[in-house]
Amino acid sequence: MEAVPEGPLSVPRGVWGLWNELSEVTREGLREIYCEIREEHGGLTSRLAKRYAKTACEIWYVTDCVSEEAAKLAGARKSGRGRRPTSQTVRLLAKRQAMQTAALDSVLAKLNALVAKDRAKTLARLPQRVG
Fold it and tell me: Quick check: is 5 in a domain?
């Protein structure tokens, strides 16, 4: 009895307390990303892995938002009418997008390492329990 269904999204119990101070749209987006990360890794066992997953969700969400904003501004710069964003603004958003993507890649790599380490510890303990 690990997940509590609410609408189309089924989120593990401990996640319902996360991001309560944020708007519902943002909270749902973050929880959706958390579920995808959790599913990708086959569950998160350690507290540290769960904290990294939370951080990865937040960085992922920000990266999505920055990427969308950069694409909109670049499109407006290229084909917009009236007041258009400056090339400097477009370049700065592209740089911010690249930095966010690098941060996301770093956090996801660390999360993969943590999950692999946790699984190795669990597998090392299994023969002790059986024997």
Answer: no
> Total structural domains in the chain?
1
Q: Residue 3 domain-assigned?
A: no
Residue 130: alpha-carbon gap to chain centroid:
37
> pLDDT at position 42, please?
84
The domain of 90 spans: 13-125
Query: Is 6 part of a structural domain of the chain?
Result: no
pLDDT tens digit sequence for 60-95: 999 999 999 999 999 998 888 888 889 999 999 999
**Residue 18 three-state SS:** coil
In a domain? residue 130: no
Q: Is residue 19 classed as helix, strand or coil in its secondary structure?
A: coil
pLDDT in tens, 93-104: 999 999 999 999
pLDDT of residue 10: 63
Cα–Cα dist 21/47, whole Å: 21
Bridge partners (DSSP) listed for residue 6? 9
CA dist 82 to 65, 76, 78, 90, 130, Å?
A: 24, 10, 12, 16, 73
Whole-angstrom Cα distance, residue 30 to residue 53?
A: 11
